[in-house]
Design brief:
By secondary structure, the chain is an alpha/beta fold. Helices cover 39% and strands 22% of the residues. The chain is built from 17 helices and 18 strands.
């Protein structure tokens, strides 16, 4: 194979199966939306990526420098069933031309292996797909004595070919995509985001279904928690839905919590807190022209999440509330969190214990909850909503660095110790002592470090450093922590 001839990589995107069984109008809309989404995503990677839309696929051709980055984004874009990597060869008119080129590019894959050739074709040729398979297979068998021969049923290697008129695609790899519907085809939703397993997985499933998912966070008083939630919300958006702008809303809920303690009976505090969150979310959603709310609640996951209590919570609003995790077990939820990369965020998320009822009601009364609701001073809730902060999600990381209270330094002193808390294996090089402690081990390992030293936490954007440094300061009492942001 002549590597010098390969200057670009082709990706063939196959649509999610459910898209292809839609009516013509719905199918056209979804394909157009996916095409627009991929245009935005690919343009951010490189203006040299070419993209073409067909009735059954979308093709992207990229310079080799951007293959890995584009592959990742394609596999994390909803609406895609499969991503095929292919070598495109033009002006293939005869079987002889095809067999020579396929052998040139694929002979190295069948050494000491059995193989089979599978072909599809579109256009008017004087041969059939089976002719391509037999001709290419026979030629490769004759030209590669080190192969273990052809096996039509259980081959080690399948060489997949697609001939479109005179354009030959040699499929080199197949990947399963994210599935779901293209983002932007199913409206908008507002996700109540706590940053734990449930709310992050619920938000991911919403994105996967093609819904623009905005985030709302109720700050119960923990700065580290706010930093953590903003970071994981940004992560979900950046990884799975960056083709669309969405909003992140923060509502200060400390005074609401204080008022609950004053006005609400202990056993109903948990239900009332969630009702007030739903009510505030509905208010914000209406202002943003969003039609529904999303929560991560699962039936019976905790004793208070009974059908009756969920019904009592829902009765605080007339807006549609979706709960995609309703019938999922915790292990299933954790499995998805692991797959999408939010597990480590959830496990390291600083917890803030807001309203915890001493004996939470598990089968609340409609009459009683109405009585409790009438006792609450809603002017406090109105003030909290009035003070809501709405930001575009792409501005959230800058916001995190501003709200963090830890000192940021650009140059370490000679006695400082830098701690690289990134998840990656590589470690930043500095002129001072440097340790490698991933953020999810920081709490456990930090207590073994000398209290006489000053530690500078380092990550790519300073976000994780603010989050976990703030947590160690607020919850463990450490004061010898700063954030390291080299110039």
């Amino acid at each position: 194979m002549n590597d010098n001839e390969i200057k670009t990589q082709k990706f063939i995107v196959k649509y999610f199966t459910e898209i292809m069984i839609k009516g013509d109008s719905a199918k056209r809309q979804m394909i157009n939306q996916l095409y627009q989404n991929l245009q935005k995503i690919s343009l951010r990677i490189s203006k040299d990526i070419q993209i073409k839309k067909f009735f059954d696929k979308i093709e992207l051709v990229t310079p080799l420098d951007f293959v890995d980055e584009l592959r990742v984004k394609l596999l994390e874009t909803s609406g895609i069933e499969q991503v095929l990597e292919a070598i495109q060869i033009d002006n293939m008119h005869t079987l002889d031309e095809i067999k020579v080129k396929v052998n040139e590019y694929m002979s190295h894959t069948i050494s000491d292996k059995t193989f089979v050739v599978r072909a599809k074709r579109v256009g008017t040729q004087n041969f059939k797909s089976t002719d391509i398979e037999q001709t290419v297979g026979g030629y490769m068998l004759a030209m590669n004595k080190n192969s273990n021969g052809v096996d039509l049923k259980n081959a080690n290697i399948t060489i997949n070919l697609e001939l479109e008129h005179a354009k030959l695609n040699i499929i080199t790899k197949k990947h399963f995509g994210m599935g779901g519907f293209p983002l932007g085809t199913q409206g908008d939703i507002l996700s109540l985001m706590s940053g734990g397993f449930d709310s992050t997985v619920a938000s991911y499933l919403s994105i996967k279904r093609g819904i623009k998912t905005h985030f709302i966070f109720f700050n119960l008083g923990g700065l580290a928690h706010e930093i953590g939630v903003k970071q994981v919300a940004w992560y979900l958006w950046n990884r799975f839905s960056s083709s669309h702008k969405v909003s992140f809303i923060t509502i200060p809920f400390e005074d609401v919590v204080s008022q609950i303690f004053k006005d609400i009976s202990p056993s109903y505090m948990g239900v009332m807190l969630k009702r007030l969150m739903i009510r505030a979310s509905e208010n914000i959603a209406k202002d943003l022209k969003i039609d529904s709310l999303l929560t991560g609640e699962s039936v019976a996951q905790v004793s208070s999440q009974t059908l009756r209590n969920l019904s009592l919570i829902d009765s605080a609003s007339n807006m549609l509330i979706l709960r995609p995790l309703s019938f999922m077990s915790k292990p299933d939820i954790i499995d998805i969190a692991t797959k999408i990369g939010t597990r480590k965020f959830a496990e390291a998320m600083p917890e803030y214990c807001g309203v915890i009822s001493q004996h939470p009601v598990t089968f609340g009364s409609y009459d009683r909850v109405e009585k409790e609701a009438k006792a609450f001073d809603y002017s406090i809730l109105d003030e909290a909503i009035k003070n809501a902060k709405i930001k575009s999600i792409d501005e959230v990381l800058d916001d995190i660095c501003e709200i963090g209270s830890l000192e940021v330094v650009n140059e370490p002193n000679k006695n400082d110790i830098v701690i690289d808390i990134r998840q990656s294996l590589d470690c930043i090089k500095t002129d001072v002592e440097t340790l490698k402690i991933p953020f999810y081990n920081l709490k456990k390992e930090f207590k073994h470090l000398s209290k006489e030293k000053t530690y500078l936490l380092y990550c790519d954007k300073g976000v994780l450093s603010q989050l976990h440094g703030q947590f160690l300061k607020d919850n463990e009492g450490y004061t010898n922590i700063k954030v390291y942001r080299p110039k």
